[in-house]
Design goal:
1002 residues, 22-stranded antiparallel beta barrel, iron transport, mainly beta, tonb box, Ferric Hydroxamate Uptake Protein, Chain A, domain 1, 17 helices, globular, disordered N terminus
């Protein structure tokens, strides 16, 4: 095992166990509050929970100066993976609970905010307004949400005011600066020109076109190239991503209440620059909650939330393909001034054509993207106590999201250059709306040693919306982006050409009608039984398949309450839990069982000077037999607490099987590209361990720790009809540079890389040499990588060598194999908080072990492909050499072997980009995600001016990462497909964030 990886694993284990052992020895008393958790439509005591539920209270998040709740919970909940796909401001955050169950569909959990479903809720909520987050992980808890609970449920409760409380005002604000953590090493100017010398002079013909081109661009003699040792280097990565990005965040909350009412009003504003020039993020949010007791029996409440955000900048690669990779230009553009007939800061169209590169700063100025999101949530509830034991509750909610994206491509971009060098604008608009109504009856009764809690409910949900895209070409070359966005009529088509018509689409209405019930029974405060069932009717499926039924049951035994443990002082809680449940998934487009005509410009025809929209059937073939995807989960767990709350935690083991997967399969029918089918099965099984407590609890000093570690093994059990006859797999393209670089195979996990094994390079011993012709010919029996890696050119010494896995003497597609999985063997986090008098400090780590990362940047930057004058990865400086120190080409085998005795890298191949094992790296890491130091003034210090609490703090986010990964960041994952995770291609680099802030309560 690699020593660095081994040391990282020991570091995880040591940091995890030492505080736990210390807690077992420290016996000072600590009182713990009997927590209440939300488990779906009502709350229960945490001690009475029978399911797998992880929770984090707002108190644990209050000192985290981050702008997204998703960032705040990263690494804090067992079985919950939170991964920022890249480091751009306002970037997407993926949350996966107990591994992904779906293959081609979304694995995002269901988010419920104050009782209302709200997509992407974790990225649009400020951590400061969260009261609690509960994550339902097994089907015995999620099945109460039926068709929406297959990927887990995240229940978020925002803060409310308190009745009979005086009005308090809290302000929490912080400011900080972000800096890029690291850059990719590339060839310096001298190394660059030496490499170009080999590319141009490889034929060894003096006076040919290549020889003349090199002399004109770089210098006429080999010795003359030494001047590049002193040429000023331009670090394009630093110029593009080295911006000092400032952040200003303000949180203001006002809370209070009277005898019968309570209110809470919060404001949040974020203004954040990105480390990449021209990028940034702004967000403003307001939330108002009001609760009122109409009478002793009748209560009423409303919640109104509005948020708007603006994300500027194109990022690095909008979809991650080679043609729009902005990161590629900053890495591969020539690393110095000059070298062209046009100055480097001016646009040279011939240089762009010959190199497929544009100056990254010019390109950044010529690509503009403004992405705006407006979110509205309105909900109200009515609570009526029919009797002291029977309560009726009705909740009505409305959620609306409006998205508008304006994109501009200026004259130097590839899009404009393919359009007569004239700018282009694309305007995208969409709106989605969701209406929810939930009505429940809750009956609770205690009689003797019995406690009964019965819930009955009914729910309806409707989602609909529309979208439009307007792609407008031929703007005047001098037009500015904002002018183009505001006046698309300024675009004038050349004679004989017409503009594309706007494309519009209607989001098919998604309707869900549900009925559900749950019974919770406790006997003698020892034995707990919970059972639930939900029936969901969905218009996604055809009549006959519309209804899905999702039952669940769980048991818990409070062993501590038994007589034989009742008087054991050091044991405060011991509870055993088992659960079984079925949940579902219907996350596909509605009405796919019927043929409808789509009306848009793509199906149109030209009439006069415009395109008249036409109608055509969808390219997705109908399937009247498609039905619910079903997830069956089995869970067993133990909850424990020792030494009067000094040490507490839980252990859970689970098996989750998902069958009848809703897969978008390719079909061989004319006119159709694909069809949704129920095809395949997956399994996730794993263990979760959570521990926490107080290591030291003295009057002037305290040390607490909370830690969790989880393991999950994902296995594809069946792919159904998704494979060809006689096969148990199919190949998947990540959409980057490596073709079919993933495999979905029965017996393997989702996210398995698939490619060639790197054998190194071809050496002199692999060839026969003809001294008269000076030609190297590959020996008989030595497999040739020519067709796969070298663009079909003859193999030469120093070329990339791939392993012949099947032993047939040649390198073909059949020599690919599985190269590891993007899924970690285990992951987790641990948080330590320290208190010394009025000072406080927290250290929060998260880690991942055993996952592989596909470093696609590394593959691209060590592959020549079609273009010269491209800079390369610094490793290329150690490549095979054909020219000696005088610039003379060497062909003699003995001399050539001596020339390359100390080089190890192969010649960058000129063939297509392929995935080979050189690009697969260990992605294990330990990250110090957050370190905070705070000071709170003694109570009463500022009471004379109305200040109840005053705290100053300083924080560093992403302080360091211990990893063996050579790319920007081991957590990068730029694909949105569950089958292709862990691809680091053109990701926006992560940054380090230095923060200072103040927290004041009046």
């Amino acid at each position: 095992m690699d020593k660095k990886v081994q040391s990282i694993k020991w570091l995880y284990l040591t940091a995890f166990l030492i505080p736990v052992l210390a807690m077992a020895q420290e016996k000072e008393k600590e009182t713990k509050i009997d927590e209440v958790v939300l488990v779906g439509y009502n709350k229960v005591s945490k001690k009475d929970v029978t399911n797998a539920v992880s929770s984090v209270k707002g108190e644990a998040l209050k000192d985290m100066p981050v702008n997204s709740a998703a960032e705040a919970i990263q690494g804090r909940l067992a079985g919950v993976q939170v991964q920022a796909s890249e480091g751009k401001p306002g970037g997407d955050v993926d949350i996966t609970i107990r591994g992904g169950t779906s293959i081609t569909g979304s694995n995002a959990p269901l988010y419920i905010v104050d009782g209302i479903q709200m997509d992407n809720a974790m990225t649009i909520l400020s951590p400061k307004e969260i009261e609690s987050i509960e994550v339902l992980k097994d089907a015995s808890s999620t099945s109460i949400y039926g068709s929406r609970g297959a990927n887990g449920v995240v229940l978020i409760t925002t803060k409310s005011g308190r009745k009979k409380a005086i009005t308090t005002i809290n302000y929490n604000g912080f400011t900080g600066v972000r800096k890029i953590m690291n850059t990719l090493d590339v060839l310096d100017p001298y190394e660059f020109v030496l490499y170009q010398y080999e590319l141009y002079k490889k034929n060894g013909v003096i006076g040919d076109a290549d020889d003349i081109a090199f002399n004109t661009r770089y210098g006429s003699t080999y010795k003359e190239l030494e001047k590049y040792k002193s040429v000023q280097r331009r670090d394009w990565q630093d110029e593009l991503f080295g911006n000092e990005a400032f952040n200003f965040t303000h949180n203001l909350s006002v809370n209070g209440g009277s005898e019968k009412s309570a209110f809470s009003f919060t404001l949040n504003h974020v203004d954040e620059d990105g480390i990449m020039l021209g990028s940034g993020f702004k967000r403003s949010m307001a939330n108002f909650k009001y609760d009122y007791d109409i009478s002793k029996k009748l209560k009423f409440g409303i919640n109104a939330r509005y948020g708007r955000s603006l994300t500027n900048g194109v990022g690095t690669s909008s979809s991650g393909s080679q043609s729009n990779n902005r990161l590629r230009n900053s890495v591969r553009y020539q690393p110095f001034e000059g070298g062209s007939t046009v100055p480097v800061d001016d646009f040279d169209p011939s240089y762009a054509t010959n190199t497929n590169l544009v100056n990254p700063l010019l390109l950044n100025d010529n690509e503009v993207r403004d992405h705006r999101i407006n979110d509205l949530l309105l909900n109200a509830y009515l609570n009526y106590n029919i009797t002291k034991d029977l309560t009726f509750r009705s909740v009505v909610g409305y959620v609306q999201r409006d998205i508008s994206t304006n994109q501009f491509w200026g004259t130097v971009t590839a899009q404009a250059r393919a359009n007569a060098d004239m700018p282009i604008v694309q305007l995208d608009r969409s709106q989605t709306r969701r209406i929810t109504n939930t009505n429940t009856l809750n009956y609770t009764k205690k009689f003797g040693q019995h406690k009964l809690d019965v819930l009955l409910g009914q729910e309806i949900i409707q989602t609909d919306g529309e979208s439009s895209t307007n792609y407008v070409k031929w703007f005047p070359k001098s037009i500015l982006p904002n002018e183009a966005f505001a006046n698309i009529a300024a675009a004038t088509p050349p004679p004989g050409l017409i503009q594309d018509a706007a494309r519009t689409a209607v989001i098919a209405p998604d309707r869900l009608a549900s009925f559900f019930g749950r019974v919770n029974y406790i006997f003698a405060n020892k034995y707990i039984f919970t059972a639930s069932v939900r029936a969901d009717g969905s218009n996604v499926f055809m009549k006959g398949n519309q209804w899905g039924y999702f039952p669940a049951a769980s048991l818990a035994w409070k062993v501590k309450e038994e007589k034989f443990l009742k008087d054991v002082d050091w044991l405060n809680e011991l509870k055993l839990r088992v659960g079984y449940g079925l949940s579902g998934n219907n996350r596909i487009t509605s009405y796919l069982w019927a043929n409808f005509y789509n009306i848009n410009a793509n199906n149109g025809y030209v009439f006069g000077t415009s395109v008249t929209p036409g109608a055509a059937v969808s390219t997705t073939q109908t399937n009247p037999n498609v039905k619910w995807e079903a997830t069956v989960s089995k869970n067993a767990g133990i909850d424990f607490e020792f030494f009067k709350g000094r040490l507490y935690g839980s252990v859970d083991g689970y098996i989750t099987d998902t069958k009848d997967l809703l897969v978008l399969a390719k079909v061989p029918f004319p006119g159709y590209a694909n069809q949704f089918q129920n095809s395949g099965k997956t399994r996730n099984k794993g263990l979760e361990f959570t521990v926490g407590g107080s290591v030291i609890d003295k009057e002037n000093f305290g040390w607490k720790i909370d830690a969790n570690i989880s393991t999950n093994k994902n296995t594809i059990l069946s792919l159904g009809s998704g494979t060809a006859a006689g096969q148990d797999y199919y190949l998947v393209q990540s959409g980057g540079i490596g073709g079919f670089d993933f495999i979905a195979k029965v017996g393997s996990s989702v996210g398995t890389y698939y490619g060639y094994v790197t054998e190194g390079r071809y050496e002199i011993s692999d060839f026969d040499y003809n001294a008269s012709t000076k030609v190297y010919t590959l020996k008989a029996g030595v497999p040739s990588s020519s067709a796969i890696a070298l663009g079909a050119k003859a193999v030469q010494p120093g070329d990339l060598k791939l392993r012949d896995l099947n032993g047939d003497g040649q390198i073909t597609d059949a020599d690919r194999q599985e190269l590891g999985s993007a899924l970690p063997k285990f992951y987790g986090g641990f948080n330590q908080t320290f208190r010394y008098k009025n000072f406080d400090m927290s250290l929060f780590f998260n880690f991942s072990v055993g996952n592989k990362v596909y470093n696609a940047n590394k593959i691209e930057n060590t592959t020549q492909y079609l273009y010269r004058d491209n800079n390369m990865d610094a490793a290329v400086a150690d490549r095979w050499r054909w020219f000696d120190n005088d610039g003379v080409k060497v062909t003699d085998p003995t001399q050539l072997a001596a020339l390359n005795a100390n080089t190890t890298m192969w010649t960058p191949p000129t063939g297509q980009y392929i995935l080979h094992s050189y690009g697969i790296e260990d992605g294990s890491f330990l990250r110090l995600n957050n370190v905070t130091l705070g000071y709170t003034l003694p109570k009463g210090s500022l009471e004379m001016i109305g200040v109840k609490n005053f705290r100053l703090y300083a924080t560093v986010n992403n302080l360091f990462v211990i990893t063996g990964y050579s790319g920007y960041d081991p957590e990068a994952s730029t694909r949105r497909n569950p089958l292709t995770p862990g691809v680091d291609y053109a990701a926006y680099p992560r940054s380090r964030f230095f923060v200072t802030g103040v927290d004041i309560t009046f």
